[in-house]
Records
---
Amino acid sequence: MPLNVAIVGIGNIGNTHAKVYAAHPDCKIVAICDAITDKAKEGADKYGAQAFSSIAEMLASGVKIDAASVCTAGMENGGDHYQPTIELLNAGIPVLGEKPISNEIPKAEQMVALAKEKNVRYGINLNHRFTPAAYLAKDWVKEGRLGDLNMIDLTMWINNPNESSPHFHMRALHPHSFDIMRYFADSEVSKVHAFFKKGKGRNTWTNVHVNLLYENGIIGHLRGSYEGNFGAAGTYGLETLDVVGSNGRFVLKDACEHLTFYPRFEKELEQQDYVGGMKHFSETFGSRINVWIDENLKSVDPTAISASGEDALKGQKVIEACIESWETGQVISL
Ligand SMILES: NC(=O)c1ccc[n+]([C@@H]2O[C@H](COP(=O)([O-])OP(=O)(O)OC[C@H]3O[C@@H](n4cnc5c(N)ncnc54)[C@H](O)[C@@H]3O)[C@@H](O)[C@H]2O)c1
């Protein structure tokens, strides 16, 4: 039996999700739902599905849906996720939501609580760390190749002219950053301190430095910007992750492209390029969504799914703590 999938919100990213489902041998896209009727119809024609302009209409139609991707956007790129997600979870349908889960913490908490109450799978598309290179680096950490971890440093930047709210940069981009850092720290953030700077000609906080203390003692640092992406040839692109331990260090460039292990006490480096054949960040959508598909096909327990709503909520709390730190000039404890 194929996994019958609905896509809610068929914009740029909804289409990205749809292409992954369409290419999967065990998935069938059965419904495309968009508040803009013409977009829903166009998407439905493209993917051979039924078109709906609301969740209520889709649920009332009786079409059998095993899982849904919620690819709406809204305020700070997450404001429209709440309502459709609540309606789907209430109907017992597993949801893969786009990031940010919500920049309104009480709403994020409600969605996570509802998924728990209904015992329904609820994941978030925190795709950056679903790469063969990140898995290999994580194996190195687990095997003890780096020794005891001391520091995690991440740079994530793109060019984005959006000025729609003062903290759009922090709230729209860095759900990914705190998720990647949490994955490698294997611990929760206990303290946060952040400084922001508006870039030249910008009216919003487009640059940030954050210091983090994790519960297990690891210290972290995030450098973020919406005026980044230096080196048109990709020499210093989207993201650079640098994880330092007592015996060695790794640097992972651009999520999947170049992974280098630097031993502390020997001379020879280990360089791995395009691990598993993954060459570009854009491929992380496929790798992440395929994990979600597998977990649904295997009926994985909702408490055991990868990059869950609960995981995403933890990242959102760090984001809000960064903003509070900047506004109060204090170190914020979580
Ligand atoms: N994971 C990533 O790397 C990544 C990258 C870029 C964007 N995103 C996220 O993807 C999401 C979508 O971004 P986009 O650029 O495709 O947005 P978009 O504005 O192009 O598309 C959103 C669509 O949702 C529809 N919509 C809104 N409310 C709806 C509702 N209640 N029911 C049905 N349809 C509704 C809109 O009509 C629109 O067609 C955002 O949350 C964004 O943060 C994620």
---
Amino acid sequence: MQIAIVGAGIMGRVLAWQLSQSGHRLSIFDRDPIHSGDAAAYTAAGMLTPYSEVASAELAIHTMGMAALPLWSAMTDALSVAGGGRCHSHCDSPCGQSHEPDCDLCLHQLGSLIVAHPGDRADHRHFNQQVQNKLHPAAEQFQQLNAAQLAELEPELAGRFSEATYLPEESWVDNEQAMACLADALLANPNVSWFPEIPVEQLAPHSLRAGGEGYRFDWVIDCRGLGAKADWPQLRGVRGELLWLRAPEVKLKHLVRLMHPRYRIYVVPRPDDIYIIGATQIESDSMEPITVRSSLELLSAAYSLHPGFGEAEIVSTRVNCRPALSDNLPAIRWQDGLIRANGLFRHGFLLAPVVAREVVNWLESGESYRSPYAELIQPLAVPA
Ligand SMILES: Cc1cc2nc3c(=O)[nH]c(=O)nc-3n(C[C@H](O)[C@H](O)[C@H](O)COP(=O)(O)OP(=O)(O)OC[C@H]3O[C@@H](n4cnc5c(N)ncnc54)[C@H](O)[C@@H]3O)c2cc1C
């Protein structure tokens, strides 16, 4: 089939990659260049954390997220072949510390740690209860560590916290590397044409208009994130701010979440002593620079997690808006010749492979396809 994908954020790229595996002819349109832009995907921390996220999300996020983890694993394996060895699949140490120099995309499968200061233990307990109540029974994947066990697993936190929750299946990818590796694999495929820096002015069943020209396809798939708001008015932006710090005095290996009654943070390790500290979640579609208040909250929480952050350089601050629907769940809406996939909210990296797989299954099986995820796929007339 001749398929247009409009929007090459994480949703559009993962979907294009999956469709390209089935031999479809693809035209990818994006208003931004191939290797940079304003997509929310370029701001994301790249966490794949289906357990932690369910504390404040529907169970469906966990169910879909668990289905997505093996798809991420398979995708990183396959990208390593398609990219001629550029992308490495699984490694068990943070990038930049011990693995091969050509490792461009690494699925960091080290698990995540949840900790809280003594005064915030109630918040930590509440988090554990929320997750366990929703996931019952989750005992195996939900390990309570005492101070000695925490010190053994993550020596950087030794003596700082008397207990922790360890979620060994949680992982993360480098968002920019994932975007780049997917683009490289797609550009290497002769069935894929990429139209960068061309905003799509109008899209409709079987057709679109871009750069003043009209195009026709068997299917048009709208993956524009917040860029689709004019056609999907229920979409809203949820602002997220995060900081990149260079902290040579900090040697964290795991993704760490600090529980706090007002400002919970996560810390994601990156190569070269970089740590991503995130993120705020504000009901606003403002893309203005990070506020003093948000910076203070994120930085104080980071400093309270590890004093080595006190000497860190602030390398960059990043702001973007997550595309969300009213229930904060992803949605696929279809009519003949047009599919929209959107609403990935704070889970676009986690969920893109499974939402993409559902689009592919639906396209290849037709209207008789029954998704295992109730409500995910609906005719376009049904509002989300
Ligand atoms: C601070 C922050 C941290 C996050 N951390 C995580 C995380 O750790 N894990 C996780 O799973 N998710 C995370 N997310 C969420 C994730 O970034 C989003 O869910 C995801 O990017 C949504 O993907 P998308 O492809 O739908 O939209 P986007 O990534 O925004 O991509 C949309 C694309 O459409 C293009 N476009 C828009 N309009 C047009 C047009 N008219 N013509 C052509 N092209 C167009 C844009 O240029 C863009 O490339 C985070 C988000 C933020 C803001």
